[in-house]
From TrEMBL:
Keywords: Glycolysis, Lyase. This is phosphopyruvate hydratase. GO terms for cellular component: phosphopyruvate hydratase complex. Pathway: Carbohydrate degradation; glycolysis; pyruvate from D-glyceraldehyde 3-phosphate: step 4/5. Pfam families: Enolase_C (PF00113). InterPro entries: Enolase, Enolase-like_C_sf, Enolase_C. The keyword Transmembrane does not apply. Residues 1-151 form the Enolase C-terminal TIM barrel domain. Belongs to the enolase family. Gene3D superfamilies: Enolase-like C-terminal domain. The keyword Membrane does not apply.
Length: 153
């Protein structure tokens, strides 16, 4: 489930789940943790990507401590070595959505994530392509997961 929560973050740091309708259905980070716990309990959810804003490290860590599913850092980590290190230190997630920058940086990001037991899912940047390179990279890194929006394989 790719929530992309940063897209409906309010100016005061809350999450407006009905941002297109009134009255608003606004949640704090802690109430959103509880909502995700219910979802995981009631539905066969195995993975949540970007459940919180990329600056809300405490809510990420709180959710990670109470659910036993894959929590994928995309906006949170940005395939950035410093972001990955911070995510590991704060125990904020347990998987990396690896978007390709350079091949060298991508391999370093994957290895840094795997060494602490995280899953790694390879993905395109926002400019999709029909090239199969990410599938080849995922196999080469033994990731086992690819996030793809085009049907091509």
């Amino acid at each position: 489930m790719d929530v992309a929560t940063s897209e409906f973050l309010t100016k005061d740091g809350k999450h407006d789940l009905d941002f297109k309708e009134q009255p608003a259905n606004v949640h704090s980070g802690s109430s959103l943790v509880e909502l995700y716990k219910e979802f995981v309990r009631d539905f066969p959810i195995v993975s949540i990507e970007d459940p919180f804003d990329q600056h809300n490290w405490s809510s990420w860590a709180a959710l990670q401590s109470v659910v036993n599913i894959q929590l994928v850092g995309d906006d949170l980590l940005m395939t950035n070595p410093r972001g990955i290190t911070k995510g590991i230190e704060k125990k904020a997630c347990n998987a990396l959505l690896m978007k390709i920058s350079t091949v060298t940086e991508s391999i370093q990001a994957a290895l840094a994530s795997k060494v602490v037991g995280w899953g790694v899912m390879v993905s395109h940047q926002s400019g999709e392509t029909e090239d199969k390179f990410i599938a080849d990279l995922a196999i080469g890194l033994a990731n086992g997961k690819v996030q793809e929006r085009n049907i091509m394989f």
